[in-house]
Specification:
The complex is a heterodimer.
Chain A lengths: L8 H17 L6 E6 L4 H16 L3 E6 L11 H4 L18 H4 L4 H16 L4 H10 L3 E5 H7 L11 E3 L1 H9 L3 E4 L1
Parallel strand pairs in A: 1-2, 1-5, 2-3, 3-4
Helix pairs in contact in A: 2-6
Chain B lengths: L7 E5 L6 H11 L6 E6 L4 H11 L3 E7 L5 E6 L5
Parallel strand pairs in B: 1-2
Antiparallel strand pairs in B: 2-4, 3-4
Classes of the chains: A alpha/beta, B alpha+beta.
Chain lengths: 184, 82
């Protein structure tokens, strides 16, 4: 029943505004976030987990697509696999200035990994295990990239419980329904 | 000073990002619309995080202030559910 003849332009504009506001409220994309985790070191395991758990706490349906070295983060052996190396990492804070040649000595990766874990613990930062538990608890969707799993020789049972498996199409399907997409 | 009485208190002192927000998300779910969650935090990032989080979750940050000991106190009123 459109009786435009009896409506002022102002009224028509008002109705359009209301309809647009309503449509935006129904916009599911603003409640979804999708991250790609591509790095497999201890330091780089934090950003996707922190953002996903914070997003879930803000009411977003979050998913993380783990690909290439990012698979380390959800591997059952993540505690052993996630390390940090001072080699070619001039941004890493060290207790004393260290020439590049020293950072590449045997044992330095274990040293740097232990140092970073210690720093995080002293400051009270959640551990990777705690963040994964929060992610699972808050229903963050964890998707392992099947293609890189095959290339690296991983089996589905190598991953923590709750992980799903998929490929580029699954990742993009989550991404196109999200306003928030980050590649980490 | 605060003119609000909380229905629930979240002590997030000593916790760092993202845990204060994660815990607040959990606590606010147990409240009814209009009830107030008081949060005490020591993470300086909370000063930016809680206003942003409250806006994203359609809850209302009524007030926040810094105590003499440096701890940060936030009062958040739960909004209407969708």
């Amino acid at each position: 029943m459109l009786e435009t003849g009896q409506m002022t332009e102002e009224r028509v504009r008002e109705i359009i505004r209301e309809e647009i506001t309503r449509a935006f409220k129904k916009d599911q994309a603003k409640k979804q976030g999708m991250l790609i985790a591509s790095k497999g070191t201890l330091d780089w395991a934090y950003p996707p987990l922190i953002l996903a758990t914070a997003g879930a706490a803000a009411g977003l349906d979050m998913s993380i697509f783990f690909t290439f070295y990012g698979l380390n983060i959800i591997h059952k052996d993540f505690e052993k696999k996630l390390k940090v190396s001072p080699v070619a990492n001039p941004g890493m804070p060290m207790p004393m200035p260290m020439p590049d040649i020293v950072t590449s000595l045997p044992g330095m990766t274990a040293f740097a990994t232990g140092m970073m874990k210690g720093m995080f613990k002293d400051k009270g930062v959640a551990t990777i295990k705690e963040l994964i538990d929060v992610a699972l608890e808050s229903e963050v969707k964890l998707i392992a990239c099947q293609m890189t799993m095959d290339v690296f020789g991983y089996d589905q049972k190598d991953f923590i419980d709750g992980v799903e498996f998929g490929g580029a199409a699954a990742a993009l399907s989550d991404a196109r329904k999200s306003h928030l997409t980050l590649f980490i | 000073m605060a003119n609000y009485t909380e229905d629930k208190l979240l002590d997030a002192r000593g916790l760092l990002c993202p845990m204060p927000v994660v815990k607040a998300g959990k606590e606010i779910r147990s409240l009814d619309a209009g009830q107030i969650l008081k949060i005490i935090a020591t993470d300086r990032g909370a000063i930016a995080d809680f206003p942003a989080w409250a806006e994203d979750t359609d809850n209302e940050l009524l007030e926040w202030n810094e105590e003499a000991d440096g701890s940060l106190v936030f009062y958040i009123k739960k909004g209407e559910e969708d």
